[in-house]
């Protein structure tokens, strides 16, 4: 499994528009690609801005290529809504899902 990590910073005055864009455009485009296994959008409010972290989960590097093309480490045009996003892909070495019926 591959986890794609996209991180952006948004001024407080634009957070609503930015989150709507991420939800409607980025998440939508990620989730419709075969091999996508889900995504998480996280926020971290700071004094004058909000940090956003979008984690998307991919079956394999080849399924991620269906989203990005052969350059999986390059940001997509639609990911460049932030002037300098941080974008990294990680291979999952080990993953443990909670047992069914087990509350977190």
Principal-axes geometry comes out as globular
Tally of domains: 1
Question: How are the strands ordered across the major sheet?
Answer: 2-3-1-4
- Count every helix, treating DSSP H or I runs of 4 or more residues as helices: 2
pLDDT below 50 for ≥5 consecutive residues: which ranges?
Answer: none
The helix fraction, in percent, is 10-25%
Order of helical and strand elements: EHEEHE
Strand residue content: 25-35%
Number of strands: 4
CATH topology group: Alpha-Beta Plaits
CATH class bucket: Alpha Beta
Indicate the CATH architecture.
2-Layer Sandwich
- Helix and strand content put the structural class at alpha+beta
> C-alpha Rg, in Å?
15 Å
Rounded to the nearest angstrom, the distance between the terminal CA atoms is 23 Å
Report on the biggest sheet. Answer: 4 strands, antiparallel
